[in-house]
Amino acid sequence: MEPKPTLLKILDIVSILLLLIATGMVFFYTPVEAVMGQVQKVFYFHVAAGWVGMLSFLAAAFAGIMYLIKSDRKWDIVGLSAVEIGLVFAFINIITGSIWARPIWNTWWTWDPRLTTATIMMLIYAAYLMLRAGIEDLDRRARFGAVYAIVGFLSVPLTFFSARLFRTIHPVVVGTNQPGAEGSFDMTAKMLQTFLFSLLVFSFIFADLLWHRIRLGRLADKVEQLKLKTME
Amino acid sequence: MSTAAGKSQISIRRSFSEYARAVWAILWKDLAAELRGREMLSAMLVFALLVILIFNFALELDAKTRTSVTSGVLWVTFAFAGTLGLNRSMAMEKDRGCLDGLLLTPVDRSAIYFGKALSNLAFMLIVEVIVLPVYSILYNTNLFNPGLIMVILLGSIGYVGVGTLLASMAVQTRTRDILLPILLFPVVLPVLIAAVKASSGFLQSIPMSEIWPWLNILIVYDIIFIAVAFMVFDFIVEE
User: Fold this and answer.
1) Residue B230 contacts by C-beta under 8 Å, 6 or more apart in sequence?
2) Cα–Cα distances in angstroms (integers) from residue B86 to residues A2, A9, B45, B71, B94, in the given order
3) Of A126, A134, A161, which has the smallest distance from its Cβ to B217's Cβ?
4) Which of B173, B187, B213 sits opposite A152 (nearest CB)?
5) Within-domain flag for A55
6) Contact A71/B at CB under 8 A
7) How buried is residue B88: exposed, middle or buried, by Cβ count under 10 Å (0-12/13-18/19+)?
């Protein structure tokens, strides 16, 4: 068994500390939003989780392209790891969003472009995992996974645009707002700092988890090879 | 110099005509097989009519609701009947070992993709050509609208383009029959959204300027996904 790399250990500790600081900032540093009150504080981790969800999707598509070019198993492990992490964070994104939407929009759910896209992204992740589960051959599983990650990633922006042609009520906090958005607010300096810090923190957590998951995938491969060796 | 350029031009033209011949051969093979058995087309057709029948009772398609939901009903019907056809068309190749035979032929792999996609498109269009007048008669609505027919063509191209690619993956897995819709529907959603909106736009004679964005999405989708399928199909059928 290979020891855990020192850099990974450091990254673990840094991620945990950063997450604690970010949580502290959300609760004690940021002001309470005037109209929405406490529930607005979910925004910092909500957007950060969505960001990680998108980032993993991008990472999975990139790993897919690299796998098809190089056919190196390393990239297959990266792709699978990114999808698994992305699924969890996309789910956190949707749950925190619902918690916010219930008091602000007066509904848990609405078919807004962002919500539709987030759901479709999760369904594509789930389909990716089901596709892999149905294939025994390692090489074929990796190839099909890579192709599906690319195809899925390309369809997501189109889903977003087509859903956006319907009217949206989701607030655009960063950038210009569309008319009709509900629950929008202007960020104060402290809010903006916390928001950007949360994005950074979640990116660290993403990197840390991805590294762990890739390492796990490699160790699983090694165990598999050892098993085959003992059977011979 | 000019002769060399001319020669390479001739060889490009020749290789292109060979490519087109390979695509045509696969398309013809599928059409001929279907013409003899008619297994797939009849299943798709009966299924499509059953879906419309179910919608009739599920949505109570009276004259008032009909105007707003017709395009939705049509596209759900086409999408469901389409998966049936896609699954069958690829499973047929896999089960009888035909796929291995096709892979042995000395043609570019993407020619196989285009041949299969064209035959799937042909089956889907045949189903649509029959379903449309039947729907018109059953619900007393006029569906003969050139705009609608163009939308159906564009939507079917996108659907079949990505569907053929995903079906060739799905048939090579353990859970193949249930896997195709799960893989296909989340990816093909933009086509369905845009096609439904554009179809109902034409049926309700909404001004063209409001339909164009939807047509643009359909066209962009068709181009992107056929190009991607062309690039990655090699990896799907590799042994």
Assistant:
1) B110, B113, B114
2) 47, 49, 14, 22, 13
3) A161
4) B187
5) yes
6) no
7) buried
Distances from the Cα of A133 to the Cαs of A105, A213, B214, in angstroms?
Answer: 38, 18, 36
Span of A165-174, B29-38, B169-178 with lowest mean pLDDT: A165-174
Domain assignment of residue A17, yes or no: no
Matching residue, tokens 């109570």: B60
Model confidence at A102, pLDDT cuts 50, 70, 90, reads: confident
Residue A155 belongs to some domain of the structure? yes
* Cβ distance of A148 and B197 shorter than 8 Å: no
Gap from B5 CA to chain A (nearest CA, Å) = 32
Range of the domain at B46: 2-237
The per-residue pLDDT for range A123-132, each reduced to its tens digit, is: 998 999 999 9
Residue type, A55: L
Q: What is the pLDDT of residue B1?
A: 46
Phi and psi at A211, nearest 5°, equal -60, -50
C-alpha dist (Å) from residue A52 to A12, A75, A93: 17, 19, 9
Q: Yes or no: say if B138 and B55 are a contact pair by the CB < 8 Å rule.
A: no
Residue A28, in any domain of the structure: no
For A5-50, the pLDDT digits (tens) are 889 999 999 999 999 998 888 888 888 776 777 788 888 889 899 8
A100-107 long-range contacts (CB < 8 A, ≥24 apart) are A100/A39, A100/A40, A100/A42, A100/A43, A100/A46, A100/A183, A101/A183, A103/A36, A103/A39, A104/A36, A104/A39, A104/A182, A104/A183, A105/A169, A105/A182, A105/A183
| Number of domains composing chain B | 1
C-beta atoms of B166 and A68 within 8 A: no
> Between these two residues, B167 and A187, which has the higher pLDDT value?
B167
Query: In percent, how much of chain B has pLDDT > 70?
Result: 97
Which residue of A127, A163, A165 is in closest CB contact with B183? A127
Burial of A215 (C-beta count, 10 Å sphere; 0-12/13-18/19+)? middle
Cβ-based contacts of A130 with chain B (< 8 Å)? 175, 179, 182
Domain encompassing residue A48: 39-170+187-227
> What pLDDT shows up at residue A190?
82
Domain count, chain A: 1
